[in-house]
Amino acid sequence: MMLKFYYSQLSINARRVWVTLLEKNLEFEPILMKLNGDQFQPNFLELNPFHHIPVLIDGDFNLFESLAILDYLEAKYPEPSFMPQEAKQIAQVRTIELVTINELPPASIILMKDMLEVEVPDKQIEKAKGTMATVLQYFEANLDGNSSYFIGEQLTYADIVAGTAVDAIPLLGISLEPYPQVTAWLDNLRQRSSWQQTRPTQEQIEASRAVMKAILQKR
Predict the structure, then answer these.
(1) With a threshold of 0.90, does the pTM exceed it?
(2) Cβ 54 vs Cβ 62: under 8 Å
(3) CATH numeric code, 87-198
(4) Domain with CATH 3.40.30.10 in the chain
(5) pLDDT tens-digit map of 140-193
(6) Where is the GST N-terminal domain (predicted)?
(7) Which of 54, 120, 189, 190 could form a disulfide with 14 if both were Cys (CB 3.0 to 4.6 A apart)?
(8) CATH superfamily membership of 3-81
């Protein structure tokens, strides 16, 4: 039975799963969520009572939380593998994943609110920019200009998780120019077919502004 994948074009959480599905060459049925209230419909809440995307359905098994989905895909479809086997490298990948999902979203929400003219205290904006700088500097320090990815020449979940998040940072008014290693790494990722297939267009970004603003005003 074909995998079913609930996603949105503008969701970074969904995009990391989407990229993984493409990189693993898996067949799946994409189900686009508009997030205009469809995430609160009873049939979707049965899949995820927390009304978030992404959701992946494999037969009679459904799961949410993007990192859990990546672990599931890695275990069930291990080729190609995006998780190294050496202990130190596993820890590096996990750390980059967790820094990405723990540190970037709160700061991104603040900066997105400001961009969409939702009132935010200046103090929060400055704190968010500081968090962004700390994360980007951490990534900069962990990238080697002689390698294509975080772990040498192997694409891993560190690149997929961090890369899909960093790809959206310039949209928030944060320049990547002070981070040459990050810029080169992201440029390399953007050459991949999976990146090009999943990157939202400017038209999609503009069309989503009203929906995004409505969601952020409730946060």
Answers:
(1) yes
(2) no
(3) 1.20.1050.10
(4) 3-81
(5) 999 988 899 999 999 999 999 999 999 999 989 999 999 999 999 999 999 999
(6) 1-81
(7) 54
(8) Glutaredoxin (3.40.30.10)
